[in-house]
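hiii, so i know i said id send this last week but things got crazy w the move. better late than never?? heres the sequnce for the chain we talked about at the cafe, plus the structure i predicted for it. fair warning i was half asleep when i ran it
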Amino acid sequence: MAPIDTRVIKTNDIAKNDLKWQIEYNPQRCTLCGKCCAACTFNAIEFKVERRRRVKSTGALPKPSVTWEAEPVVKQIVRKNKNCVGCGMCQKVCPNEAIKPVYNEHNRVNVIHRAENAESPKRGGRTNLHTEGRTLDKIKIGRISQMTDPSLDAMRHTFDILAPFGRVLPPEKLPFTVDENGDLQMSDAAPNTRWIYPIIIGDMSIGALSTRMWEAVAMAVAYLNEVVGLPVRMCSGEGGMPLKLLKSRYLKYMILQIASGHFGWDRIINAMPEMIEDPAGVLIKIGQGAKPGDGGLLMAKKVVRHIQEIRGVPKSDLLSPPNHQGLYSIEESVQKMFLSMNSAFKFRVPVAIKVAASVTSVSVYNNLLRDPYNIVGGFFLDGIAGGTGAAHEVSLDHTGHPIVSRLRDCYLAAVHQGKQGQIPLWAAGGVGMNGTLAADAFKMICLGANGVFTGKLILQIAGCIGNDYGRCNACNTGLCPVGITTQNKTLVDRLDVDKVAQNIVNYFIATDTELKKLLAPIGNSSLPVGRSDALVTVDKNVATRLDIQHVC
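okay and structure toks below
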């Protein structure tokens, strides 16, 4: 039996009631199979033996006697470094429904962590803010074509569901001339523009994701392009790529991201002479919606050997600076980074920029629209509800800007200049949060986006058991219980690569069908970029802010 703790309890000792999640355990249903303890990657529960008092009565007449028995049980560990995160894996593997995590709304974890560790707590996932509901959920598609402009047949009509990635020149600036025979001839080079599916799988790096998870996403993208016929693109995220992929024909489906840490770019540059295909594009990451003003963060426990090789770093915490060193304005960024990236790929590959949505986003976009070089190939705008693999909780929960109003402002600013569509607008930040990717994307497109990008949804499709209400969100710990955001081989092996790839493919096929079902009623066979007349809302404040119809 375990020794009895006879020390005096201090008032500042951590108790079970102080923790965010409490393990609810029923010993009557438990068969002590051990599956729950084996499945818990956070070591939040353990087998213990408890001393129990038993009163028994034997013989013809009641003659109670007291005995003491040792009873094996599953106990929650009350320790700040072994906290339950509420992932529910114990409940998932229990064959007898004997155990489950229960959220404790009266917890003191935030106070205790800061007071005892003298540091800001970190986590992955999304911001856990759900105060007034999502703006996108308050918007409906209210314009339905019926008689004079009939609806289309969603099942039989041919739809052009493509969005531009790359600079789009206005007609008067297209480098075409007419020769003596009346034929069009190109008189000069034009910016390279790729027409792709309006939903990009957002930047999630090898390192933030396990190799098997990243492989599953890449497999799904290749299948969607080559078998299904949907030109979906995938952004690499910060940190480079495996050499095998850089030298393969599948590189054409990948958008290479360069962030402030420049991790992995030495390998990309060195591999350029051996590339048999150009990448789909280059994305220069300036900011991220989930943690605006912060650089990237990859904890040392996730920097295993193959990540070290890809990124060219030792095993340590990898912190990207909050900005690109040596760049002090958007104009300088255009002159230096954009020109150098375009030159590196001989102007064959579109180069875009990603920023966090903020009050300055419109100014940045306006400056890019006036860029005389015509080389900025896209403006990626990321809102507060975007996800991240690791960030300080204070950044996740208290900084950022919702995406919808800022997207609308950028689009209307371009309209004011008469330059809408010239630099494609891509927006994200909670898109598909409720599983409704097609509807969210459609509404964003009507508000001015050319397309959207999504990341957290892809993890949920793959089997992520975290949610936006504080469950799990332990992506930063390297202990992901389903093998998605960890480099621990034992945990990574829990992930079924083929199943994940199939789920992603199936979801995009369903999304494509739903997009057609939304296009058909408004009578559009192509994406309705900026068609805010198709949208209505019962919320007057939303209607006023976004300049759409208020209905009741």
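btw The two ends are 69 Å apart (CA to CA). thought thatd interest u
miss u guys!!
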